[in-house]
Amino acid sequence: MTPKKQLTALVTVTLGGTATFASLCIWNGNESFFSDYVMPFTRRLDPETSHKLAVFAMKHCLIKKQVKPDPESIATRLWGMNFSNPIGLAAGFDKQAEAMQGLHRTGFGFVEIGSVTPEPQDGNKKPRVFRLDEDKAIINRYGFNSEGHEAVYSRVKMEGEKPERAVIGVNLGKNKLSAMEDVGDYVDGVKKFGAIADYLVINVSSPNTAGLRGLQQKKELENLISCVLEARNNLGVTKLPPLLLKIAPDLNEEERKDIANVILKDHCRVDGIIVCNTTTSRPSDLKSEFKDQTGGLSGQPLKDISTRCIGDFYRLTGGQIPIIGVGGVATGQDAFEKILAGASLVQLYTSFAFQGPPIVRRIKRELDEILRSKGYKNISEAIGKSALSS
């Protein structure tokens, strides 16, 4: 063999071996490999391209399914459903319901898709996502980019028929051209997805659709919830899907009290609340050059704001309305603090974007260790402990 052919063979073997090694590390969800190589590579891409690449990877199940069962300490039951663990993926990642099976394989206890609007719409102009690396945060102003009810419905229905799947929530939004006071978009969403979703979410808290947050005002909210609940109760299905309300963190004390009072009324009694959406506020210690971009801020800066908001709503509702806590969850300790504040389940998104699939297993492992070290046999024993003592 000539020296040139020897060199070619050596390069081929080396590249082939490297590619095989990398593929196996990705397939196995190797934490170090993702931290040292995969995530730094994705950060070289613009944020929306990186997002699309992540959805593609989950859609095509490029991560090996978690085989080891979740610890019993983190299993829970809510709304008549069993959750193998309380860690879910928040709406906003899998907007078009393309990657539910891959996300289930990653180890999430439940997956929330959307937000979904009745008619397809493009959302806001690009650029509309900004990565604040120094702050471990993201600002987005996507504006409910959605392929619409029809396209998403077929995917959710197909996933729901699989024997092994995650608990699936469908987050419902409004089209931009719909009048803000019109509740029809949400009613249509309930009618469309009510028979196939494990739970439904009424999203009135996105900061990226003009006027939407006005639906959190007492009078408007009472009208919205009563109409949507009526539609849900008239679905004519054997098991009615739980109806949840997703609220904003940027509410004053009076507004929080008003929302709590509304959702405790018999004709407006939702099955749960998601606390909370992204914030329009900007902490003074943000470092990134993108900190002043318009949109909703998520990630580490939202963590304490969200936890306080969870505690407030747990106290205001007397613990009667189950809470899904979301905002700045990146460790098992973060999840534990949300649970202590009053959350029955926890969601993450931004940390998943920054750290990749291995974060799910790590948070579950850390949460199990924390529960055992604190003497809790199950997460249900810890719910609301700090809220009640404060």
TrEMBL record:
Keywords: Flavoprotein, FMN, Membrane, Mitochondrion, Mitochondrion inner membrane, Oxidoreductase, Transit peptide, Transmembrane, Transmembrane helix. GO terms for molecular function: dihydroorotate dehydrogenase (quinone) activity. It is a single-pass membrane protein. It comes from the Eukaryota. Residues 74-371 form the Dihydroorotate dehydrogenase catalytic domain. GO terms for cellular component: mitochondrial inner membrane. Pathway: Pyrimidine metabolism; UMP biosynthesis via de novo pathway; orotate from (S)-dihydroorotate (quinone route): step 1/1. CDD domains: DHOD_2_like. Binds 1 FMN per subunit. GO terms for biological process: 'de novo' pyrimidine nucleobase biosynthetic process; 'de novo' UMP biosynthetic process. NCBIfam families: PRK05286.1-2 (NF003645), PRK05286.2-5 (NF003652), pyrD_sub2 (TIGR01036). This is Dihydroorotate dehydrogenase (quinone), mitochondrial. It comes from Daphnia pulicaria. The lineage of its organism: Eukaryota, Metazoa, Ecdysozoa, Arthropoda, Crustacea.
